[in-house]
Amino acid sequence: MADTMRWRYGETNPVLVPVDSATVIEIGDLVYLDTDDAKPASAQADQSTEAANQELFHDKFLGVAMQRSRSGDTDPIRIATTGVFEFVCASASFEVGDLLGGDEASNGTELEDQQVAKVATANLAVGRCAHRVSPASTRVLIDIVSTVMRGGPQVAA
Predict the structure, then answer these.
(1) What range defines the domain where residue 130 resides?
(2) Counted domains in the chain
């Protein structure tokens, strides 16, 4: 997917994270921390089910790429660890506070880099819906929270 600036508002609390020279990251990608490098969601090893893929991604969720890294680049890139971003999703209605996580690609073996889906539990989520969506739409505003930097989505008290 081409670079897409998905940030809409709010503090981004960015961090600079290295990227392996062979890894390609586009602006707007959901990224995770793999040991000491940022990687896009689709680079995560398949865990056999959508829920297992979402849970592992939640556990390593770093944020949203605010800069690109092309093949061969070795400079660290800026990753937003918080903020409200607009992401593509399957057509659906959303209520403020609904949990959202990475969406599995149609091939069933990886997560999409720039697409989210409603999830049932906080351990699968990377953020919460920030604006009610009704009637159904293919775009949603999500208030992301990095698990690595900020503890990720929490179960409501």
Answers:
(1) 7-149
(2) 1
Task: Specify if 37 maps to a domain.
Answer: yes
- Give the tens place of pLDDT for each residue, 41-78: 999 999 999 999 999 999 999 999 999 999 999 899 99
The answer as to whether 154 is a domain residue is no
29 belongs to a structural domain: yes
In a domain, 108, yes or no: yes
State the pTM of this model.
0.94
Residues linked to residue 131 through DSSP beta bridges, in sequence order: none
Residue 25 CB partners (closer than 8 Å, separation 6+): 19, 31, 38, 39, 40, 65, 68, 69, 77
Q: 49 is written with which tokens?
A: 């089910």
**CA distances for 36 relative to 10, 22, 78, 143, 148, angstroms:** 26, 14, 14, 25, 12
